[in-house]
Sequence to fold (254 residues):
Amino acid sequence: MSYRHILTASSYGVATIILNRPPLNVLNIEMMNEVNRELERLKSEPPKLLVFRAEGKAFSAGVDVGEHVGDLMPKMIDAFHGMFRRMDELGVPSIAAVQGAALGGGCELAVYCDMVIASEKAKFGQPEIKVGVFPPIAALILPRIIGRKKAMEFILSGDTWSAEAAERAGMINQVAPADEFESAVESFIGRFIGNSSVVMKLARESALCGLLDDPGTGLDRIEELYMDKLMKTHDAAEGLEAFLNKRPPAWKDR
Fold:
């Protein structure tokens, strides 16, 4: 199947989805729907591993802010959260290979994967707080990955972390030198190819059971907070409008 904004590849049981809207791979609704269609397609014959990669300078600079306002917002949330729900439904181990900036929704896509390998040139950030919203997927997954304290710092500050800082926090698995990144990704993926697909899938499910709660239920609650409360505040509308108009936001704390 051919797509406009993503590329796909498959070999040795590894299904790869490549973000291909360079240079920044901003995730618009059309692109996210393509990812969703590919994830649906993979359900008929699940791969051993799912890998996300990207062309261009950035892994992804995040979701298209222009599609985050007005009537498009529910469609954007549905397409965006649909990717994570379909990854859960597919249920196979996932790896993000991050060669550049992973910001906003791009950071969420990377860190939602079970494992992350990053180039030393990569950086990670959730700047949503600076435009008057919060990152739902990061709110769901980061406390599980890096703990409450670091997750709060990362989400509430909107700071950007280097790959090395992200590795120290436990957000990613490995940092590779930029000139060795491709070989490092191949070696990282190669460690899992010889294992049983069904056993790895069950081992992954078992590890998630160890978290003692249901990510799907958590996402439903976070989505309710996001759409029914956050997006009805003055400051959410103001932050997004200010970003689109390239001006500082005027917060009213309501």
